[in-house]
Amino acid sequence: MGGKRNLHVVVAGVAFSISVAGLAFGQAPPSPGGVPTKQARPNPAPQQVPERWRNLSPQDQERFRSNVERWRQMPPEERRELREREGWRQQRLKREAEDALRNSGLQLEAERREQYERRYIQERKQIEQALRRELQEKRQRELAPVVERLKKEFAQPQGSATPAAAVSSTPAK
Predict the structure, then answer these.
(1) Rounded distance between C-alpha atoms, residue 4 and residue 19, angstroms
(2) Which end of the chain is more exposed for a tag (fewer CB within 10 A), N or C?
(3) Any domain includes 152
């Protein structure tokens, strides 16, 4: 389970790095085949790249650096798999943005439609980040008493723990 979670963290980090790199250099994220797709997004002037970097928080800059280093150390097959996953994720987000637009009843021309989809995806990412933070905080709050209870339980000599106490602390299946 821990290995799977670590893979998800790496995938999310690399996806974030790819997205930031794409934003920083005005490139679209890679397509599922690993080849960058061309979108109607103009490349920024070279002087805008350092500005975008400076606008990242120090934590995001450090995360970007560490993700780039992890990316460099990954075998090509793993890189390809991550590119594919990111492509699928981008496609899913685009489909969901299109569904939201369709459900809204708005009829927009192509440029405004793209703006809507970009904003939808941007705001959705913010919501998902906030939800992840909330979940992590809640998990920490709820795990603290569990850790304390287990600490007391396991601090006792092994023979002195009563079987009833051990049974009552385990959840029923």
Answers:
(1) 22
(2) C
(3) no
pTM of whole model > 0.70? no
Residue 55 structural domain: 2-136
Blockwise average pLDDT, block size 10, the chain, 173 residues: 53 56 44 44 64 86 92 95 95 94 95 95 94 96 95 82 50 48
The number of folded domains in the chain is 1
In a domain, 159, yes or no: no
Distance CA 68, CA 24 (A): 14
Q: Is 88 helix (H, G, I), strand (E, B) or coil?
A: helix
In a domain, 154, yes or no: no
Q: Cβ of 155: how many Cβ atoms within 10 Å?
A: 7
In a domain, 150, yes or no: no
Pairwise CA distance, residues 118 & 88, whole Å: 17
Q: Are 19 and 76 in contact (CB under 8 A)?
A: no
Alpha-carbon gap, residue 97 to 113, rounded angstroms: 10
Nearest alpha-carbon partner for 14 in 84, 118, 117, 93? 84
